[in-house]
Amino acid sequence: MSDSTVTEPEGREQSAVPRGVTSGDERSLLHRLRAPRRPRLWFEILLIAVSYWTYSLIRNAVPERKGAALRNAGWIWQAEHQLGIAVEETVNHAVNSVTWLIVGMNYYYATLHFVVTLGVLVWLYRSHPGRYAATRTVLFATTGVALFGYYLYPLAPPRLMNGGRFTDTVMVHHTWGSMASGDLKHMSNQYAAMPSMHIGWSLWCGLTVFALASVPWVRVLGLLYPATTLLVIVATANHFWLDAVGGLLCLTFGFTVARLWYGTLPHALPRVVPVRGAHGPLLGAHAP
């Protein structure tokens, strides 16, 4: 009797300890994964390169499904007429009549989409390392979810739609403002117009700069950038207005993912974080 009475609670006590330790370890690991940390340059370069390569590979591997893409373009155009916002054709013809302006927009469409996005990432890495990972997560989640749109809803751009009177400004002015026009059209899926990542990325850039920049005129430029991009994608007949709405919805998803993972929006995280050494944080080194 006495032996069994002593042994039984000891067994319960021994079985309870590992469960408590394991639970604490799991919570500690999750906390470390979600905590802001200083990014590593080599890892970020590799991550961006691999991620963009994967995104381009999947996007261009999505079946073009020309028939469905043209039908969807017709439906979008009809829906915009019913909503009273089908002014893309007017904008396209008006801007195309000013040669220097439309040529500039062609090159804007081809270059700033990448240049500005990479520039904002570099700025975040250097000036806001504590917010870098969360803000980068927004961009990656936004881009990732866009792939579902390309697969589920193939869409021809206005310049390729049946019965449309849009001008393909790259073809007319012999510029290289679009990977989906001219000699480069076979390198990109021409029917992946919904959602517009030109809008998704430019809004990410603009909102990030507006939220984190300290110079007022730079914050204003941050807001002007996505607004100008919206005009460019319509004027060059690469997107409908509603493609921009799709880009906005993808960005909203990206911010939601970051908010759920980090517990707050990226701009609310500390600007800098402690540098971690071999035995933990080095106090006083880039401390918030």
Q: What does it look like?
A:
The chain contains ten helices and two strands. With 288 residues, the chain is an all-alpha fold. It has a two-stranded antiparallel sheet with strand order 1-2. β1 and β2 (280-282) form a beta hairpin.
In short:
The chain has ten helices and two strands; from the N terminus they run H-H-H-H-H-H-H-H-H-H-E-E. The chain has helices at 2-34, 41-61, 66-83, 88-96, 99-127, 129-152, 169-173, 197-212, 216-235, 241-262, and strands at 275-277, 280-282. Strands 1-2 form a two-stranded antiparallel ribbon.
Give the biggest beta sheet: 2 strands, antiparallel
State the low-pLDDT regions, or none.
Answer: 1-22, 277-288
Shape: globular
DSSP strand (E) fraction? under 5%
| Computed structural class | mainly alpha
The helix content is 55-70%
Individual helix count: 10
Report mean pLDDT, rounded to a whole number.
Answer: 83
The spatial strand order of the largest sheet comes to 1-2
The sequence of SSEs as H and E is: HHHHHHHHHHEE
User: How many runs of DSSP E, i.e. beta strands?
Assistant: 2
Rg calculated over all Cα atoms: 25 Å
Report the end-to-end length measured between terminal Cα atoms: 61 Å
Helix and strand layout, with pairings?
Elements: H1 2-34, H2 41-61, H3 66-83, H4 88-96, H5 99-127, H6 129-152, H7 169-173, H8 197-212, H9 216-235, H10 241-262, E1 275-277, E2 280-282
Helix pairs in contact: 2-6, 5-6, 5-8, 5-9, 6-8, 6-10, 8-9, 8-10
Keyword list:
mainly alpha, 288 residues, two-stranded antiparallel sheet, 2 strands
